[in-house]
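ligand=zinc ion
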Amino acid sequence: MGCKFIRENGDVCKARALIGKNYCFFHNPESKEDLAVAVRNGGLNSRKNNLSLPQRAIRSPRDVIIVIEETLNHLRAGNIHPNYSNSIFIGCNALMKAHEQSEIITRLNEIEKKLGTPEAN
Ligand SMILES: [Zn+2]
């Protein structure tokens, strides 16, 4: 079934109506909120990341904190799409895990040296 919306020029909207509704997604009064979200997401998505954020060396947990803080502030201000921030947080998580692993290995090596145990490798 077609959308029943009539345009200003008298033409009927040619889009297919939503199942069980009289209007298409764009003209259905109930989907106004969804539409606003879709437009906003699409807008932010198509805009890509044009914040020209500085390239950072993210090596220490302190560097990770700076990046997380920066990202959260941009997210709260609505400057970046949650998809971007989610990717950044996943990256930060991976960096923290890698940092932890490398610290554990360093400590283990020191302990092994002190104990006089030959290093495995
Ligand atoms: Zn329509």
